[in-house]
Amino acid sequence: MKKIILLGVFALFSFIAFAQNSSSEKTLIQVDFNKKIGDMTTMWAWFGADEPNYAYMRDGKKLLSELSAMSPVPVYFRAHNLLTSGHDTLTLKWGSTNVYTEDANGKPVYDWTIIDKIFDTYLERGIKPLAQFSFMPKALSPKPEPYEHYWKPGMPYNDIYTGWAYPPTDYKKWAELVYQWVKHSVERYGKKEVESWYWELWNEPNIGYWKGTVEEYCKLYDYTADAAKRALPTIKIGGPETTGPSWNKAADFLQTFLKHCISGKNYVTGKVGSPLDFISFHAKGAPKIIDGHVQMNMGTQLRDISEGFRIVASFPTLKHLPIIIGESDPEGCAACGMKTNPQNAYRNGTMYSSYTAASFARKYALADYYKVNLKGTVSWSFEFENQPYFYGFRDLATNGIDKPVLNVFRMFGQMSGKRVEVKGNQKYDFKMVRDSSVRGKYADINALASKDVNAAAVMLWHYHDDDVQAADATIEIDLKGLPTEKIRFYHYRIDNENSNAYEVWKKMGSPENPTKEQIAILEKAGQLTLLTSPSYVKTSNGSLKLTIKLPRQGVSLLKFDW
């Protein structure tokens, strides 16, 4: 027994030493700002949440304002439960608007009060809806009881799938609800504004969120699209928001839906096909606890994305359509905190931020590889109102305090123009991360770079799936294609000492009820900060060489303007 314990201890220390030494060699990163490879799109500026009513709460409003402020274009926001029955419900994985009820004679009664409150909150902050026709109002559900669920972290996930998940008892009444909502939106916000939104049907209909068949989903989509287009012919509507394209059954659902839209018999018109303005699916990673620490699995998420892109690209008539990855995250349950789900302990600190930097760069690369039109990638992470500080939800902020991951999106907000070529002696390309994730000896030390008319930027990360301590990476950066003059240089950093309210909170003693003074300190610590003061650097014929140290799970943004 003692021999087994000693061997285990030796293996653990060997693994830690191995990880600590894995970054000792220098990484060379070469950026040529003259070699453009694609647009630096704002596909990252999309977010979402199960709980729509949080949007107009205090911390929800604050976070929406921050999301809008960091993006050079309007942010899109996706939410579930926009048609769910009930009044202003503020619980996990739930929400309600009560837009649809029926009187004693079965006549529809529409009430837009709450849904207007949600969308008004978005639009007042420059946010645009990715509006979702879901879920089934109680009056239209064939199994209305039980309806509202009372799920809490730690409870079985399947407990949430109640009466709201069913196809309607009357498809024509559902279609009229869709028509009236779109019509009301045009009347309230104007045709031009609503034309700029995206509209979709349901969420993850290939799992418990939908208690019907794939054929019944296609039928509901036909009724929904027809009604929406009658209310606004120029509306942008799509689907099917299936999850896990790399799963066989999920792939079958996605392909069946796309074939239906191309060549199936329309359930409403009787003609061939159904309107489809964009295609959506989900992609999730799979963290776990191994040898006492969190181990991420970026490869699982990227394989979902890769397979989704492959499926879309296999339809020549659809390949040009915008793709929206409606949820794209390190795992699947935003409301499952790290106390009940210890594999989610990555969420408060820098592992979430470095994962985000590294994975989003590979989404650009995968879209380039398949030559598809990636429009948006929704981070299913917002905030949870009135919950404990740093509980370990998958959120961007906790009680109004920004987490490190939000600062990655602030970095993305400073990148514009064209993506440019990045080369060097990095150990991973996008195919390697997709196929085998980031395991073993080498960390993923890499970069994403962009150049605009008067600015350039390089985002660097030092990522590994295993959340263990390791030595800082030494990175030699060789930049070409900059102006031959003095240019301003800014170095932003996310690590344990910078842009990190979580580490500050822990140093305070992890207060459950921070004082007003502590909250002010935490709010400041949650912002994106400079590692060093801005300076001027002189290039040599447009070239510049830099050497930086980057901690494990750290992210840097090197910004230049002139």
Q: How would you sum up this structure, described in words?
A:
- The chain is of the alpha/beta class.
- The protein folds into two domains: 26-37 and 418-561, Glycosyl hydrolase domain, family 39 (Immunoglobulin-like); 41-412, Alpha-Beta Barrel (TIM Barrel), CATH 3.20.20.
- It has 13 helices and 24 strands.
- The chain has helices at residues 2-21, 58-70, 113-124, 171-189, 191-195, 214-231, 248-263, 298-313, 350-370, 404-412, 430-436, 501-507, 516-525; strands spanning 27-39, 46-49, 76-79, 100-102, 108-110, 128-133, 198-201, 237-243, 278-284, 288-290, 293-295, 322-329, 373-379, 397-398, 401-402, 418-424, 444-451, 455-463, 473-480, 486-494, 529-530, 535-538, 544-550, 555-561.
- Helix 4 (171-189) packs parallel to helix 6, helix 6 (214-231) packs across helix 7 and helix 9 (350-370) runs parallel beside helix 10.
- The longest helix has 21 residues, at 350-370.
- The model is unreliable at 1-23 (pLDDT under 50).
- One of its GO terms (molecular function) is hydrolase activity, hydrolyzing O-glycosyl compounds.
- Residues 1-19 form the signal peptide.
